[in-house]
# Entry
Amino acid sequence: MIVVYILIVILGLFFIIPALMPGKYTIEKSIVINASPDRVYNNVADLNNYRDWNPWQKMEPGAKANISGTPKTPGHKFEWEGKKIGQGSLTIKALNPPYKADIELEFIKPWKSIASDNWTFEDLNNGSTKVTWHNHGPLAYPMARLMGPVINKNLSHQFEQGLKNLKEMCEK
# Structure
């Protein structure tokens, strides 16, 4: 009988704790790149360049990829599928060249989720650009909410790496 009570408490905690945790996440990272806003913007808004700087694509360079639509226009899309990186897509939703790019990020595998990737490119008037990568989306109940702190930590590291890769690419 004690085992039943312990199981009820564990299951109760499994459903109660996630209900008390945030239902969404936000990651925002910035870097200064010694290149013009045009150059940096073009490397983000043209999804043909995505594999060259994105940390997830670099983790699995052999993953399948399909790019469609006109570069640097709404509807331009990058789709991927790999064993390590799962399956998903990026679709450009809105642009304000060379200062802003709003991109929808959709994951299909290993779990379904939609997030927003918003980019800003601030001209520092000295040949440099402050780039800010802002990503936010929902955390599914209950597992993703339980894993929220781990997800935030891992994403923060990946975003920092992606910005370093983009900086290296733009400053060549």
User: Anything to note?
Assistant: The first helix runs from residue 2 to 20. The chain has a mean pLDDT of 90.
